[in-house]
Amino acid sequence: MSSASRQLLSAAGIGWVDETGAAEIAISTLVVSRTGRPQPTDGLKGRTPAVLAIAEALLCGVRATVSATEEATGLSTGSCTAALRFLTGEGLLVVDAERGRRSARRVEDADRLLDAYARTARAEPSGPRLQVGLLGRDLLDELAATGRTWDRNDVLWAATGAAAASVLAPYLTGVGSVEVYVDADTVAGLEAVATRADLRIIEGGRLTLRPFPTASVRSLADEVEGSRVAPWPRVYVDLQAEGVRGEEAAEHLREVVHAG
Predict the structure, then answer these.
(1) In whole angstroms, how far apart are CA 197 and each of 37, 133, 145, 183?
(2) CB contact burial 80-103 (16+ within 10 A = b; e otherwise)
(3) What is the pTM of this model?
C-alpha cells in the first residue's frame, strides 16, 4: 500500500493492514500500529541502462523475445539478450523455450516487475534539466502548441508526470507545471531545443526539459489526444516524485492500465 493511500485511510479514520504486515487500526482505546517488513530498495540490482529500457517495454506489452524488444527499443541484439537473461535470472521472467533468437519468455508477475523497475528508475540520476517559461493560463494547451512547433522542427519530445497522466488516466484537477523529455543530453542541448520553440529560459519556469532517460522512453512515446506522452511506466515513476497527490495519481494510473 502506498504512503498516500495510508495517509488517506488514516485521515478518514479507517483501519488498514497491507501485505507487508504493516497496519494501523484504532478501536476505542485499542490502537494497533506496525511498520511491517521493509520493502526491497535495491530494485533491479546489477542492472544496466538496457535492463530498465527492456523492463519498460515489457510493461508496455512488448513480447519478451529478443526480436520484439530489439524492434521496440532500437537496442542491439546483444543488449536485449543480456537484459532478458538478467530479468529471467531475477525471477521476473519465466522461460518457455530456452534457445534461439525468438526464445520465448513471459512476465511472471507484472506488479512485481513494475515495483522493481520503479525502485530502480527512482534511484537513477535525473541528469541535466532546464526550466523555461510557458505563456497562457492552460499549460496543456500551451504544451500542445509548443509540441507542434517541435514537431515541425524535427525535435523528438514526450510529456511525462502530471501532464502525461492528464491524458492517460485523468485524476488531478489541475496541472501547475509540466515536465517534458526531449532528445538532448546536455544543458546546451536542452537550451537548443528550447530555442527552436522560442521558449525563454526562466528559473522556476513552468516547463522543465529533461533528456530521455532510456531508449524505450524515446522509442515507445506515443501520441494520445493530440499530445505526445512517455510510456506509462515512466509516467508512473515520475508521478511518484510529485508528492502525495502525485502518488495518488500514480496509483490511479496503475489501476487504469491494469483495468484496461
Answers:
(1) 49, 11, 9, 14
(2) bbbbbbbbbebebbeeeeeeeeeb
(3) 0.79
Contact yes or no for 202/130 (Cβ under 8 A):
no
Strands (E), 5-163: 16-17, 23-27, 30-34, 93-95, 105-107, 130-132, 157-160
Residue 37: pLDDT above 60? no
Domains of the chain with CATH codes:
3-34 (no CATH), 49-123 (1.10.10.10), 130-259 (3.30.460.40)
Q: What angle, rounded to 10 degrees, do the helices at 3-11 and 243-259 form?
A: 110
Residue 242: pLDDT above 90? no
Residues 153 and 197 sit within 8 Å (Cβ to Cβ): yes
C-alpha cell recorded at residue 202: 526562466
| Pairing between β-strand 178-182 and β-strand 207-211 as defined by DSSP bridges | parallel
C-alpha–C-alpha distance, residues 164 and 158, integer Å: 8
In this predicted model, what pLDDT tens digit does every residue of 112-163 receive, in sequence order?
999 999 999 988 887 899 999 987 778 888 899 999 999 999 999 999 999 9
